[in-house]
Amino acid sequence: MCGIVGYTGPQSAVVPLIEGLRRLEYRGYDSAGIALGTPGTLFIEKRAGKLVNLEESFDESLPVVHSGIGHTRWATHGGPTDRNAHPHVDNEGKLAVIHNGIIENYSALKAELQSRGHTFKSETDTESVAHLLSDLRKEHKGDLTAAMRAAVKLLRGSFTLLAIHADAPDVIVGVRRNSPLVVGLGKGENFMASDVAAFIEYTKRAVELGQDEVVTITPQGILITDLEGKAVAPKEYEISWSAEAAQKGGFTHFMLKEIFEQPKAVADTLIGRLSDNNQIVLDEIRMSSAEIKDLKKILVIACGTAYHAGMIAKYAIEKWAKIPVEVEIASEFRYRDPIINKSTLVIAISQSGETMDTLMAIRHAKSAGARVLAICNTNSSTIPRESDAVLYTHAGPEIAVASTKAFLTQVIAVYLIGLHLAQVRGVMKDSQVAQLYYEMLELPGKIEQILETVEPLRTLTRSFAQSESVLFLGRNIGYPVALEGALKLKELAYMHAEGFAGGELKHGPIALIDKGTPVIAILPSSHEHALDEKMLSNIQEVKARGARVIVIAQESDEVVGAEHIIRIPRASAIFQPILATVPLQVFAYEMAICRGNDVDQPRNLAKSVTVE
Ligand code: F6R
């Protein structure tokens, strides 16, 4: 939530700042603003709405200077207006601050600062930091870094803050607490941002920051200190993502590009995971055979789409490894007293690695004595850092707000974990595990096959564009797929959409069916159990009440009662989510286009949800 970027170096600062903001816009797009390091008084420009509004406001008065900070906002305190847009400045207009997160004690701070003569112009929590820093900088004889350390000691909440002052404009100071901030190390220039995507075009060298670390950048170097002013050695790493990966590459939208990147993402996540002697190789999970054998329970925590991957984990791990699995929405988990001990493994799934609800749930689980394994797509983000181990998915940067390729790779990751645990616990033969692994290796080709034949689905989708709501039905491992299909449609098409377990329909939801209601049913494969027959009965039930039924079915499975059938290649039932999800993503994408919605940046959402 909110994208932050800071630059100091030889370039005209507006260039890397705007480029960085463009790449961070997925984090929020309610307003955007910049502060440029003009000596004397800072140059500030900010506008409600998307980044383009800010860019359109630029004219010949835009100064060419070599440092600045920029912000793209997802509103929390104060509506999305010009005044509430960041940066926020002190009374003199010499000090500017941008912020991601929430300052929980801002009203007490604001009252005190007002009593000291500070005038507030916005309704944000952030503005109090600008005024506070201004006073503290004076107390610390003009040292902005020392002022930031002192300010942070007075703040409660979660935040990344960047500040710049007109008297030393090439110095930018940042800090993070429970919110992301990375430093980019360039040649004669340095960067700070919420995410490496902001500066990947200029440098592949990054430095991660710990909790409550204050970082000061100038064109010549960086200094990291703790809140007592003690120097902290920088932890440098190489960014593996390419600059091209964070661009649209000829596709109309990031989402479409990411849907089409799924075969590669799945293949990259699977590659090299089977040894010559048929063992699943998962050294990253850092558990000895004895610890794996001792496991009594697995708890999966995640939010949104990642939660749906967690639901699939339950089916796969219980089926293969015979360990009980509970799945819980992260934001609910920490408000109960879970039964956890050393024999519990908590698996936290997060694409961004920054989701605050998931992070808080991890802390709760750790404090109760659990071991935490993260499944994450973003290197060096907070969730992997705070977990005992991490299994990275290799989806590459996911920019569109709606998750697609990250979801498929999360599902692959839980399959790998399930097979590994089953093998170590001796409940599956190596040959069975190897056979399933080889079957997974065929999935990328099958996704490609689906993507090559989506055109009729796109046409079909358009015929449903005026519908008020769409229902999704699944059974067994198709149930989380139905939930995921409904979530995608809600967030992209702004339509009422719900996913149901097919058998649950008659217990209430069938009342929603009216003449013409579109129902999308994911038909379980007929080859493994008789569930397909039960779903076919559910299809008849809704059809009898006027529903227009679309069925997603494996090749050659018999389908009765459907107005349209979307065929997906054959696969074991357990792997069907990887294939059945793809047409649902395309359906939601196309529906959003038909309804004139912004696919990559749907309303009210942000990609990285760093508030609770
Ligand atoms: C939906 C979507 C969200 C995220 C959720 C968790 O398309 O993207 O529901 O899945 O906010 O985000 P991460 O995985 O970053 O923790």
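^ fructose -6-phosphate complex. Residues 453-612 form a domain with the Rossmann fold fold (CATH 3.40.50.10490). Residues 303-306, 350-352, 355, 358, 402-403, 487, 491, 609 surround fructose -6-phosphate (CB under 6 Å).
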